[in-house]
Structures are given as C-alpha cells and as structure tokens.
Amino acid sequence: MCLLAVLLIWGEGPGRQTGAQGPSASAESPRDIPALQSAAYTPAEPASALPLVLPLVTAPEVQATAPEAPMDLRYITAKTVNVREGPSTEYPVIGKLSRGEATRLLWLEENGWARITLEGDGMTGFVSGEFLSADAP
C-alpha cells in the first residue's frame, strides 16, 4: 500500500500530473501534491500452502501412578525439643516438639542435625538428631 502511494505521488503512474498544468517536480510543495486515489485492499496469497505443523503435547502423567518414596518417620525422645531454622543452636527457634510426636525425616546433616517436617501443620525445620528415634517411645 505504501509503495502504491509513493508511485502515485512521485512516480510516473496515472495519479501523477505532468505537463504544463503545474510547477516542475522540484518546486512542488506538499499542498500541490495530488490526492491519493483509494485502492481496494486484496490480501496476497501465501508463497507456499504448507500446512502448519505444531509439536505434539501429551498430558502429564497422573501423580497417583508414580511410586512415592517411603516416609521415614522419627519420634521425639526428649521431653521438649526446639525446632530451629537452621542446623545449629545459632539459628532462631521456630517451634517446639514434645516426647512421642511423630515427624518425617527429610535428611541428616553432617553435623548431626536433622531436617524434619510435621505432617499435620507443615512446620519444617531442624532438630538435633540425638533426640530422634525410629521407634515410638
């Protein structure tokens, strides 16, 4: 469309006024340019009519079919144990557990501290591994 407009204004096309009717091309001012003739827009055909191919996307596997890791339950053996943000007494206390409470052991640190989580309330933190037992008290 832009190319058509340029040709109509500055080219040799039918919209260009030539001859003795107007001033020369170098002396034309913007208001002396003839009005553009409107042309109907017709979309061009695509260069090739290849079908659009999209990647195959499959539904994710159902989580229930995947085998779950066995829960490693541990029980608190001391009267009261502090649950901390990190694996040492330098970290702040975020909760307390009592004797017999069951926790899920996530992993053990090299320094003997255990990362645990409580299934009921979702609290996660660290306790000293010496206060955990695989057997219920």
Q: Any overview of this molecule?
A:
7% of the residues lie in helices and 25% in strands. The chain is mainly beta and 137 residues long. Strands 6-5-4-1-7 form a 5-stranded antiparallel β-sheet, with no helix packed on it. A two-stranded antiparallel ribbon has the order 2-3. The radius of gyration is 40 Å and the shape is rod-shaped. It starts with a helix and ends with a strand.
The gist of it:
The chain has 137 residues and is mainly beta.
Put simply, the count of helices is 1
The class by helix and strand makeup works out as: mainly beta
Number of strands: 7
Gross morphology is rod-shaped
Q: What is the averaged pLDDT score?
A: 75
Roughly how many Å apart are the termini?
Answer: 86 Å
- Widest beta sheet: strand line-up: 6-5-4-1-7
* Helix share, percent: under 10%
Q: Which regions have little confidence, pLDDT < 50, spanning 5+ residues? A: none
Strand content: 15-25%
Round the Cα radius of gyration to an integer and report it. 40 Å
Write the layout of secondary structure elements.
Layout (H helix, E strand, L loop, with lengths): L1 H9 L62 E4 L3 E5 L8 E6 L3 E7 L4 E5 L6 E5 L3 E2 L4
Antiparallel strand pairs: 1-4, 1-7, 2-3, 4-5, 5-6
